[in-house]
Amino acid sequence: MKVLKFGGSSVAHADAIRATQKIVASCEQSVWVVVSALGGITDLLLEASLAASRKDAKYQELLKEIEVRHLETVKALIPPGNQAAVVGEIKGQINQLESLLEGASLIGEITPKLQDGIVSYGELLSSFLVAAYYRSEGMEAGVKDSREIILTDEHYGSARVQQSATFKAIAELKAATEGILVFPGFIAASASGNTTTLGRGGSDFTAALLAAGAEAEILEIWTDVSGMYTANPRTVKQARPIPLISYEEAMELSHFGAKVLYPPTIQPVLERAIPIAIKNTFAPESAGTLIHADGNPEGRTVRGISHVPDIGLLSLEGPGMVGVPGISMRFFQTLSEAGINIVFITQASSEHSICVGISQSQSKQAEKAVNAAFAYEIERGNIHPVVSETGLAIIALVGDQMKEHQGLSGKMFSALGRNNVNIRAIAQGASERNISAVIDQADVKKALNTLHEAFFEEQVKQLNLFIVGVGNVGARLLDQIRRQQKLLKKEMQLQLRVVGLSNSRKMNFKTSGIDLESWEEYLGEGEEADLESFFQRVSALNLRNPILIDNTASETVSSTYAKYLKRSISVVTCNKLACSSAYENYSQLKSLSRQYGASFLFETNVGAGLPVIDTLKNLVLSGDKVRKIRAVLSGSLNFVFNTYNGEKPFAEVVGQAMAEGYTEPDPRIDLSGSDVMRKILILARESGYSLDIDEISNESFLPAKAQAAESIADFLQALEAEEDHFAKRYEQANESGARLKYVAVFDSGKASVGLEAIPEGHDFYNLSGSDNIVLFYTDRYPEQPLVIKGAGAGADVTASGLFADIIRVGNK
Ligand code: ADP
Ligand code: ASP
Ligand code: MG
């Protein structure tokens, strides 16, 4: 014999009920069926009873809604010819329910006893309706009122079951009946015949009692998910069903919030070694979860992750607590007398503080009781008034075998720490089967996903990207990400998701990842761009492994980095402004990055995609010392001086460089040398020198008029007028067989930039196109420098440099 329980969503509407009928029909042995109220009905009943107790006529509307839901379900399920009797019975029950609600409304009050009477109609109606439908499908199905066999005390709302009397009644029922019986879940009765309920979610428990009392072969819990998952599948998308689990582990998971099973359910079946299957009514072919005694044959450590929301912390502290016996005893006794359930006790950090976790709804009451109990000590200043905090949650790792393994809690806390989840308290293992921590409610989703990633998806790490700037470089980057996504996941176990996008006009977000085939449309549909609200959104989303990517050249964007780093959000940028700003600002960003464990990477600030900064970092980290740097760092100036050969005027060559996208939108930034100054500044700083931009000498090759130009147009005009100046410079170099290169030098702590005539045979002589070259002279490379050379400008190489930084964050 089997006991099958169908939860609220499995009987919520006609199609669901049809699915349950097919499941029952496919059983070969005799079956008892337990049903919950139609999904949502218990909530409506509770709402109606509260409305009635406030004398609010809204209860009548709610009652109507309840009636209509049931009648419509009947009409959809049962052939018209057979409907009359069923409709009649339902209307009769609704009338009785109405009288109870009227009663509550008349006296303007609701007692727990009356409330149980009212909510019991959810299951009374559903069990009747389901059995009537089964019969109309030709099954022999009767209804058995659970109140006749499940006996409880009168603790209304969550009555305690008297097991031996209950089991006896069940055994007798089993002996006396055959065929299919449908039972209302959740409801029971006291010895004096009053209706009681077993607590929210209690239909699971009804089914467990029936299975134990009737010594069923198996208890099947049919619900709306395919088993008990490694974490709540509604919060953790990557969660997956646990095929096999032990009773103890399942109990622990359900105690810690896995609502799929009501916690008391396991005890009665465990005692009789009856296995529990958790199955999906809407996907009966999926294997689901089997809970039984040998549920962990492979000895796995962490089986699941769960959380308990709405937790409050209560701490009692004071100088008068040290060495005074009996204080904790009084504290706990006070809470117990006030009916407050202690969810956990946290590790006391010192002798003069006690801290407990309780249900947030009882915080006020607990605070009052404790302050009253210690009024004397508080008045004398020996103990401080109790400190109560709310808005917290417990997250827990659960598994039988965890106690035998070291390092799990270290892994748990470091994963949370890396993701900026603040741990408020460590809950002392209520059992050896879990490790739990108290965190802010707002961090729950991120924490669950972080832990799930750390313990169940070790292979795949998700990086959540927030991209500002989708111009030339940004668009290429998005394209590269789109093309590499699959491969990165397969080869490097990195999953890249672009969650936020912004340009200067619009911004848009999508937690599950923006489709990179159509990001332009998606961005177009977004809201008005605003850097502050962008930051607020990124923070509020609170995702794990977040990265801000700045593809702009904007100072307003670069001035926001500190805020992100302080939230442990990594920053990857091709914008040079932050690293070439005041030394103080640069070094603050570097230290925030260390302090908050967030990467701050800017490889593309020098030499676009060339691995210049990364190489330099490795040199310095491995103990080498940079003495001198000589470099050609401007793709744009290279292009200009490689193209200028006295034939075309200089101004025209600059115009061509602009048109081909080799310069900044304002060519003065390149031609004045400021761009190169910034780059050599960054290299010097990364080599460990504290330098500022105004300490770099820059002897401009531009004539005075061009230097003074106030607009781009004026500037180009000045270049045209001064063609002679440039031609002379070229001729001089040419005559001595040299070529003009714009060179940056850092030597003995000093930096300079300027145009040089480079003789044949020199490392810089053959530099073509937009190539960059950097020579590092270090203690290990004193004579023959370490050389890095290659294309140092262009949107594509810059985007791939950014991409490499993103991967570096991922591999950290
Ligand atoms: P029923 O109405 O069938 O009793 P419940 O809503 O009580 O269903 O329980 C099923 C729900 O439990 C799922 O929809 C899911 O959101 C939630 N849940 C929470 N934790 C877990 C978990 N670890 N595994 C599966 N489901 C879980
Ligand atoms: N209908 C009740 C509830 O919603 C019992 C159950 O569904 O298990 O809590
Ligand atoms: Mg349930």
UniProtKB/TrEMBL annotation:
GO biological process per UniProt: homoserine biosynthetic process; lysine biosynthetic process via diaminopimelate; methionine biosynthetic process; threonine biosynthetic process
Catalytic activity: L-aspartate + ATP = 4-phospho-L-aspartate + ADP; L-homoserine + NADP(+) = L-aspartate 4-semialdehyde + NADPH + H(+); L-homoserine + NAD(+) = L-aspartate 4-semialdehyde + NADH + H(+)
Stored InterPro entries: AceGlu_kinase-like_sf, ACT-like_dom_sf, ACT_Aspartokinase, ACT_dom, AK-HD, Asp/Glu/Uridylate_kinase, Asp/hSer_DH_NAD-bd, Asp_kinase
Statement: the UniProt record of this protein carries the keyword Protein biosynthesis: no
Gene3D superfamilies: Acetylglutamate kinase-like, Dihydrodipicolinate Reductase, domain 2, NAD(P)-binding Rossmann-like Domain, VC0802-like
Pfam family, one: Homoserine_dh
Pathway the protein acts in: Amino-acid biosynthesis; L-methionine biosynthesis via de novo pathway; L-homoserine from L-aspartate: step 1/3; Amino-acid biosynthesis; L-threonine biosynthesis; L-threonine from L-aspartate: step 3/5; Amino-acid biosynthesis; L-lysine biosynthesis via DAP pathway; (S)-tetrahydrodipicolinate from L-aspartate: step 1/4; Amino-acid biosynthesis; L-methionine biosynthesis via de novo pathway; L-homoserine from L-aspartate: step 3/3
Coiled-coil segments: none
Domain (ACT) ranges: 397-470
Protein keywords: Amino-acid biosynthesis, ATP-binding, Kinase, Lysine biosynthesis, Metal-binding, Methionine biosynthesis, Multifunctional enzyme, NAD, NADP, Nucleotide-binding, Oxidoreductase, Sodium, Threonine biosynthesis, Transferase
Cofactor: a metal cation
MF annotations from Gene Ontology: aspartate kinase activity; ATP binding; homoserine dehydrogenase activity; metal ion binding; NADP binding
Summary of the function given for this chain in its UniProt record: Bifunctional aspartate kinase and homoserine dehydrogenase that catalyzes the first and the third steps toward the synthesis of lysine, methionine and threonine from aspartate.
Similarity section: In the N-terminal section; belongs to the aspartokinase family.
Subunit relationships: Homotetramer.
Name this protein carries in UniProt: Aspartate kinase
